[in-house]
Amino acid sequence: MSSPAPVGRPTPVTAATVRQRPSGMPIHRYGPYEAVDIPDRTWPDRRITKAPRWLSTDLRDGNQALIDPMSPARKRAMFDLLVRMGYKEIEVGFPSSGQTDFDFVRSIIEDGAIPEDVTISVLTQAREELIERTVESLRGAPRATVHLYNAAAPLFRRVVFRCGREEIKQIAVDGTRLVMEYADKILGDETVFGYQYSPEIFTDTELDFALEICEGVMDVWQPEDGREIILNLPATVERSTPSTHADRFEWMSRNLSRREHVCLSVHPHNDRGTAVAAAELAVMAGADRVEGCLFGQGERTGNVDLVTLGMNLFSQGVDPMIDFSQIDEIRRTAEYCNQMEVHPRHPYAGDLVYTAFSGSHQDAIKKGFEALEADAAAQGRGVDEIEWAVPYLPIDPKDVGRSYEAVIRVNSQSGKGGVAYVLKNEHKLDLPRRMQIEFSKIIQAKTDSEGGEVTPAAIWSVFQDEYLPVDGAAWGRIALRSAQTSTSSDGADALTVEAVVDGVETVLTGTGNGPISAFVDALTGIGVDARVLDYCEHTLSEGASAQAASYIECAIDGKVLWGIGVDPNTTRASIKAVVSAVNRATRG
User: Fold this and answer.
1) CA-based diameter of the chain, in Å?
2) pLDDT of 5-50, one tens digit each?
């Protein structure tokens, strides 16, 4: 019994019809983050046109967050990697926190592992004995920075230190003075020496107080030409939207005195999942330097990811000044050092980030590669010399040392584009569109029945079994032995084919207006009614050993099927393609 026809039009989906319900979560325990009153903000109109200075804190902030902190060998591997990549400022440890960090700092100095253009940085709290120990670790370093910090936020003043603003400021001022005294005493003029101060928990510190502390520190350090100070404003815990974070940076950048002698540094963490955006917007708002870790290693949800930041610049045509061209080597080294795997979906570096499973995505990527090759040929240039433009791939995987092998992978969500790409990329077979559709249905049936991914090797195995006879195996009615062409007395093409038909050695003859037409005529002698609907061919390679691939669509006894033939001789390749189609129509 048929269903009654619907009456009227369906109700449209609107905001009124989408009824979300209260979560019941204890939202009363939390409040909004305080906004910054800066109505004439300028950062939204700025663009990042050059790389900021970078500092890697993998060996300090990253290392202290590991379940199993790095051994000396793993630390050295990380340091050497960062140097090879091109980082010029590297925070190498917290030498006053324990002998392990102290010894590592000494080892890279005494081994001569620090290039002359690389500045190492070490962290210290503001107590005198810790400052002395920290500076002592730097004896003999070519270039070094001491990084002093103390927490300034109201919660820390009230709960942790139980003191007021003035005492917190004095800790920073006294600590700065002690750093200067011990640097003069221990390092002298042997080391190019710099100083960095961080009001820890900047994101929760009142802006006017953060400014007051920084000014007090600068009054001691006295920055001037040739004597910069690094003021680092850390999102020790990420608490706001990236836009509000940028507002705070623009406010500080505007209000700091001696701004031309200040390197304003941003140190985002990823508690809200927006550290990359926070860093980029902070640079737009005036930050000169970014501190972070490779792949976002660090406390809790991690520091900002230096790889993503650098590659974001690269993808916009801005030189990151860091070499990411061997992304897999970088990832493997980081995984070894941190004993933590990089997620398969991690931007730019994960195993799956240049991979498409979706059929529509695969089809667009395949067409994008074809268009790129055509554009390069039209310009008389190499593909790697023209602007990259392929759908769903923001950068060329080869620019970071990847191949195209894993760009398209086939599963139940894939369509003709993915299957066709694999065959073209792996085997140089450029299937006609209707043949792509035909074969993709065969692969779809396989994935539907077996589930999971179909590897390129499995796709090729299915393709061979379906279209190409395997030597020594029974494959359909006809096995081609030889084919000879000649011209008949009336000018038509004559064809003589030696073949095994149904297990019997047979000679077939036919005539037509070409070898394919003549072979179709010859097939009538064994009761095969075939009609060619479409034909195309291309070469698979060049030179003396070049082979041709022929594709033929045939109507055979009421079935429409494709066949393929591969042979150094184009005539034999086309005859093989007809044999392929006939065998597919008649095989059991």
Assistant:
1) 112
2) 667 888 888 888 888 999 999 999 999 999 999 999 999 999 999 9
Give dist(CA 451, CA 440) in Å, integer.
15
Closest by CA to 119, choosing from 136, 144, 137, 155, is: 144
**DSSP output for 530-572:** EEEEEEEEEES--STT--EEEEEEEEETTEEEEEEEEESSHHH
Rg of the chain on CA atoms, in Å = 34
The DSSP result for 463-518, as a single string, is HHHHHSPPTTS--SSEEEEEEEEEE-TTS-EEEEEEEEETTEEEEEEEEESSHHHH
Q: What span, in angstroms and rounded, lies between the C-alpha atoms of 508 and 498?
A: 6
Sorted by sequence, the CB contacts under 8 Å of residue 486 that are 6+ apart come out as: 493, 494, 495, 496
- Give the DSSP per-residue string, 283-330: HHTT--EEEEBGGG-SSTT-B-BHHHHHHHHHHTT---SS--TTHHHH
> Please, are residues 69 and 96 in contact by the beta-carbon 8 Å criterion?
no
Query: Is domain 478-586 in CATH 3.30.160.270, yes or no?
Result: yes
pTM greater than 0.70: yes
pLDDT of residue 468: 85
Describe the crossing of helices 515-523 and 570-586 by its angle, rounded to 10 degrees.
30
Residue identified by tokens 């060049």 is: 542
Residue located via tokens 């993709």? 440
Place of tokens 């009824």: 19
**Closest alpha carbon to 548 in 569, 576, 579:** 569
| Tens digits of residue pLDDT in 399-455 | 999 987 666 565 555 656 778 888 888 889 999 888 988 898 888 888 777 777 778
d(CA 91, CA 144): 9
- pLDDT exceeds 60 at position 511: yes
Q: Give 232-290 pLDDT, tens digit per residue.
A: 999 999 999 999 999 999 999 999 999 999 999 999 999 999 999 999 999 999 999 99
Q: Are 291 and 269 in contact (CB under 8 A)?
A: no
Q: What integer is the mean pLDDT of 359-385?
A: 90
What SS3 state is found at 373? helix
* Domain ranges within the chain, ordered by starting residue: 50-338, 359-467, 478-586
CATH topology of domain 359-467: Helix Hairpins (1.10.287)
Residues 6+ apart with CB under 8 A from 578: 516, 519, 520, 523, 530, 532, 552, 554, 563, 565
Identify whether the C-beta of residue 535 lies closer than 8 Å to the C-beta of residue 515: no
Burial degree of 540 (CB within 10 A; 0-12, 13-18, 19+): middle
Which fold does the domain 50-338 belong to in CATH?
A: TIM Barrel (3.20.20)
